[in-house]
């Protein structure tokens, strides 16, 4: 009996198993935001993201494909929501790697939705902002 763990999706060599098309991903994104808030709430925190070798699948997958965009760089912020949105926006401004899984969907403006059309990553930052984890607004300062 299926218990909804999703392990079959990651290990199927023929991509024959797909996730359910329901609110599961939105709920997961919301819970991730809530757990992150529980960790940082009332505590000093600083975040560093390195946007390098952005693969189409989660790093937990045993298999993966070529990076979907060129390497972007390093980001830092005291706001965990702003940094994630800034990183996603930066990825979405990059050209698609013509050798990647999403090359045939290069015209789509959102690289993450191109990789996974049935999910919407934006529900996570939206919920995070709603619960006071941070803001989706950011100021990008480039350092060379």
Automatic annotation (TrEMBL):
A Pfam family annotated for this UniProt entry: DUF362
Domain called 4Fe-4S ferredoxin-type: residue spans: 1-22
UniProt KW keywords: Iron, Iron-sulfur, Metal-binding
PROSITE patterns associated with the record: 4FE4S_FER_1, 4FE4S_FER_2
GO terms for MF: iron-sulfur cluster binding; metal ion binding
UniProt name for this protein: DUF362 domain-containing protein
Species of origin: Candidatus Avoscillospira stercoripullorum
